[in-house]
Amino acid sequence: MRIGLRRFVVLVTMALAFAVPALGHVGSKDVFETVNAGPYKLFVTVRMPNVIPGVATIEVRASGSQVNSIRITPVPLTGEASKHPPASDAMKASATDPQFFAGSLWLMASGSWQVRFEVDGAAGAASAGVPVAAAPLAILPMQRSMGIVLGVLGLILAIGMAGIVAAAVREARLAPGDVPSQSRKRRALIASAAALVVAGLMIYLGGKWWDVEAANYAQGVYRPLELRTALTGNTLDLSLGGYNVKQQRWRGEPKDDLMVDHGHLMHLYAIREPEMDAAFHLHPERVSDGLLRISLPTMPAGVYRLYADIVHANGFPETLTTNLNVPAGMSTAALGPDDASAAPRAISQGELGTVYKLPDGYSMVWDRPEKIDANTAYKFRFELLGPDGKPATDMQPYLGMSGHAAFVKYDGTVFAHTHPDGSAAMPAMMLANGETMGEMDDMPGMQVDMPDGPPSPVVEFPYGFPMPGQYRIFIQMKHGGVVETGVFDADVQQ
Amino acid sequence: MMKADMFSEGFMSSAASHPGVVASTAGAATGVEARRASVPWYVWVGVIAVTSATVGGAWDVSWHRSIGRDTFWTPAHMAIYACGVLAGIVGVWLTLQCTFGRDQRMRDASVSILGLRAPLGVFLAGWGGLAMLTSAPFDNWWHNAYGLDVKIVSPPHTLLILGIRAVAVGMLFLILAAMNRAAIQGEGSIGVTNFKPLQMLFLFLGGLMVGGQMFFLQEYTWDVALHQVSAYIALAIGVPVLFASLSQSSRFRWAATATAAVYTAFIVSEILILPLVPAQPKLGPVFFPVTHLVPAKFPVLIVVPALALDLLWQRTKNWKTWQIALVSGVVFVAVVTAVEWPFASFLMSKASANRFFGTIYFDYNARPTSFDRLRKFYEPDSGLTLWFGLARASVYAAISTWIGLAFGKWMRGVQR
Question: pTM to 2 decimals?
Answer without folding.
Answer: 0.81
